[in-house]
């Protein structure tokens, strides 16, 4: 109804403007014809002037009558247009009343439904939804809680043990799901399971813990922390220093370094700087930037010193291969980069500039500087979006 009222009002308004224009023209005609008729009549009544032609007088009278008829018709069209406009306004008013009544009825129905038991979601439902949508992040937080608070609980005990147990159960559940999907082994399940047994947290690093406790007696908490970090080499190999991230691989499915090695060799042998520069020009990168980044990541040697505190000596060498970085480079070459691929370019360019500006080849310092500059690269973001490697 509202649409019909609007269309009628627009049409009536247009007709009214046209009729008013015609009425104005007709009224001008009447005025001119009347003046001519009066002039001829005055000349006929004057004795000094020659009498006007009789035919001219008749023509003037007919013209005046026709003008008055046209004016009358135009006035009728104006009146009709005004009536249609008034009808459209009335229809619009009725439509507004119907809409307001429908709104009031809808509000009453909503109130009735609320009273009948349809309530807003509670906070715990929102919390469950958040955990579901951010499960991977939630599991990573639980792993951190188990790793950090687990050691603290072994030393001081107390209620923190319940927090560690809850976090360990989450990690165990996640690992069991991955095992059922064929994405984890029984060995992967064993360690989260041990973390759930009271008194067993830290069993896999018990020797390291003993070293740490002896260090505590000698040099306090700082020396204990260093001892625990050094003992980690008994369980996990040193992480790969790849430029964009530093991490340890859990298995070949998690981090296919052999494939990455082959891709890195292919990238070094391919002249793709111009192609990538054209693909990322819109993000502010120049050809020189891309050439510098490629040299920094794939060609140059750096002081790989991130694991000196773990007993791993620093060495001048190229970055170790990273399948996520290899895939990012291939996407950049193909012209379909993920947003984090652009972050990776900015991260590596910042690292390279830091090393050049300071003259310091230390990868750990350059990497930290890039992180502090807000250029942390999330290498697993593409996999969460359905492409690339995903940490198991």
UniProtKB/TrEMBL annotation:
Natural source organism: Streptomyces litchfieldiae
Region of interest (Disordered), residue spans: 21-60
Chain segments annotated as transmembrane: 144-173
Any coiled-coil regions, as ranges: 64-108
Basic and acidic residues bias spans: 33-42
Biological classification of the source: Bacteria, Bacillati, Actinomycetota, Actinomycetes, Kitasatosporales
The name this protein goes by in its record: Uncharacterized protein
Membrane as UniProt keyword: yes
Keywords: Coiled coil, Membrane, Transmembrane, Transmembrane helix
């Amino acid at each position: 109804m509202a649409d019909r009222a609007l269309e009628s009002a627009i049409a009536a308004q247009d007709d009214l403007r046209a009729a008013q224009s015609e009425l104005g023209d007709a009224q001008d005609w009447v005025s001119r014809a009347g003046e001519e008729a009066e002039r001829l009549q005055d000349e006929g009544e004057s004795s000094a002037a020659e009498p006007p032609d009789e035919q001219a007088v008749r023509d003037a009278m007919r013209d005046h009558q026709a003008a008055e008829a046209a004016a009358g018709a135009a006035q009728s069209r104006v009146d009709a247009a005004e009536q249609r406009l008034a009808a459209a306004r009335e229809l619009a008013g009725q439509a507004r009343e119907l809409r307001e009544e429908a709104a009031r009825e809808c509000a009453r129905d909503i109130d009735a439904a609320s009273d009948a038991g349809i309530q807003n979601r509670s906070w715990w439902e929102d919390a469950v939804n958040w955990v579901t949508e951010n499960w991977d992040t939630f599991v990573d937080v639980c792993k951190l809680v188990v790793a950090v608070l687990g050691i603290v609980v072994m030393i001081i005990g107390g209620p923190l043990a319940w927090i560690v147990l809850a976090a360990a159960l989450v990690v165990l559940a996640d690992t069991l799901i991955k095992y059922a999907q064929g994405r984890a082994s029984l060995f992967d399940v064993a360690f989260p399971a041990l973390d759930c047994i009271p008194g067993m947290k830290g069993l896999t690093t018990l020797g390291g813990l003993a070293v740490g406790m002896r260090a505590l007696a000698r040099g306090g908490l700082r020396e204990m922390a260093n001892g625990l970090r050094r003992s980690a080499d008994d369980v996990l190999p040193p992480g790969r220093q790849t430029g964009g991230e530093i991490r340890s691989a859990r298995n070949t499915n998690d981090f296919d370094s052999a494939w990455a090695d082959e891709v890195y060799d292919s990238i070094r042998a391919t002249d793709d700087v111009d192609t990538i520069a054209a693909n990322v020009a819109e993000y502010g990168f120049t050809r020189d930037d891309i050439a510098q980044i490629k040299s920094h990541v794939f060609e140059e040697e750096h002081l790989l010193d991130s694991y000196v505190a773990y007993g791993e000596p620093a060495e001048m060498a190229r970055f170790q291969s990273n399948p996520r970085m290899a895939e990012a480079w291939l996407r950049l070459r193909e012209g379909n980069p993920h947003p984090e691929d652009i972050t990776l370019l900015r991260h590596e360019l910042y690292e390279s500039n830091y090393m050049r500006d300071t003259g310091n080849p230390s990868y750990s310092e350059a990497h930290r500087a890039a992180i502090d500059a807000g250029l942390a690269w999330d290498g697993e973001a593409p996999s969460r979006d359905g492409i690339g490697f995903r940490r198991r």
